[in-house]
Structures are given as C-alpha cells and as structure tokens.
Design goal:
By secondary structure, this protein is α/β, with parallel strands linked by helices.
C-alpha cells in the first residue's frame, strides 16, 4: 500500500493564481495538484475557437506554478488545436517545468462547446509513479471510458468538472458516493466556482465520501490536501 498526497484547488476559473497561493501549493508537498475544468480562463473568449488563441498564456500560468511545485500538475483545461489541427478541450499535464502530455476530453458538449471535437488521447496515464484515469466534464457519463478503467484495473480516477446544477448539494454527494462504490475506485473531483455556479469538490471512495467541500464553500476558493491509500496503482 502507498499513500498518495493530492492537492486539489477549487479555484475561481477567471482569477489567476498569485505568488502567495503558489507558496501555499508548494507547502502542501503533494505528489499531484488538480485544477478544475475550465481553469485558467482569464480571457473569457466568446467561443472555444477564440479561447484557443490564448493557449500559451494559459500554459504559462501552469509553468509558473511548476517553478515552485515539484509534483504533477493536472492543469485544468483549455481549448487548443491539437497536432491534427482539430479544436479540442485539453487537460495539460505538467511536471518540473515540462508540458509532458495532454488528455483530450472525449465527450465535449455540443451545446456549450461549439466546434470542439472528441479527443483521441488515452484516458489512462502513469505519472509520479501512479497509474490513474482522467475524466473531464461529460466524460463522467462515457461508459466506454469506464469499461477501459475496469479492464485495466484502475484504482484512482481524477475528475475535473464544472457544476451543471442538475442535482442539489445532497444529491451530488449521494451520486458520487454511489458511483465510487459501483466502479470500485477512488474518485477525486475538483470544480471551480464561476458566475454564480457552485463548485462541489469532493473525494469519494468505495467506503463512502471521505471529504467534501462544505455547503457554505460552494462559491469559495478552497485548497485541500488529501492522503489517498492505493493498493495496486503505485509503481516503485
């Protein structure tokens, strides 16, 4: 068994992470830092196509964090043109000032992400000695990804999301508790508050809800360090 330290930052999508916050992230001494879907979104482009033109500025914020934080950064998402020239919602993976890889969202929303195509990257990664699965937004409901996780015996899944308001706070807890039990995974969810929409970051495992953002913190920036015990996923 190994203990993995995971810092999740429920961060307002439109506000930069400043030097004081970077210092707090560094002090967590976590193996991983999770940032929400849609962070950083400073320029608030009217369409994904317009937002993709700011790709470098978004990535520069992550590299700035990486100057002080030695762990793996699963750096929110931004829109970009991939190597094939397709517009995708991409989750950059950064460590030691290197942009190591991207996870591309597999289930973009036709309604809120016009022009964005389905990503083709793998959903399972090995970083920091850990095998883990990645989900962004609507990927949560993509059963083909869950089938892959089951086949590969994935034990820990990082889920970067927004909050769509379909469920109440209490219903959300029940939903994710049930999901983690059904899939037999540690599910780490991070959200970011924006424009009146709540953020409900949490950690659900087969034993239940291990940690959750309080109901009064749905609109707040929250930095939390979790210790997660994994049996099979850690590689020496």
């Amino acid at each position: 068994m190994a203990v993995i330290k995971i810092a999740i930052y429920q961060k307002n999508l439109h506000k930069r992470i400043g030097s004081e916050e970077i210092s707090k992230i560094q002090q967590t001494k976590a193996h991983f830092l999770l940032l929400p879907e849609g962070f950083p979104h400073f320029f608030q482009g009217e369409t994904p196509e317009i937002a993709s033109k700011h790709e470098k500025e978004y990535q520069d914020q992550l590299l700035e964090i990486s100057e002080s934080f030695s762990g793996v950064i699963l750096g929110g998402t931004h829109y970009r043109k991939n190597e094939e020239g397709h517009l995708v919602s991409a989750l950059p993976i950064v460590q030691s000032l290197v942009l190591v890889d991207f996870y591309e969202k597999k289930s973009p929303s036709n309604l809120s992400e016009p022009g964005v195509v389905k990503g083709k990257t793998e959903s399972i990664f090995i970083m920091g000695g850990l095998r883990f699965g990645l989900l962004v937004g609507e990927d949560l409901e993509n059963e083909s990804i869950w089938d892959e996780f089951k086949k590969e015996d994935i034990e820990i899944v990082f889920y970067l999301s927004g909050e769509d308001g379909k469920r109440s706070y209490e219903e959300d807890l029940t939903f994710f508790e049930t999901l983690a039990k059904q899939k037999s995974v540690h599910l780490i969810r991070v959200c970011g508050p924006t424009e009146g929409k709540p953020a409900r970051s949490l950690y659900a495992s087969p034993s239940g809800i291990n940690w959750k953002v309080g109901k009064m913190e749905e609109d707040k920036d929250v930095l939390k360090t979790l210790s997660v015990n994994v049996m099979r996923s850690y590689l020496l």
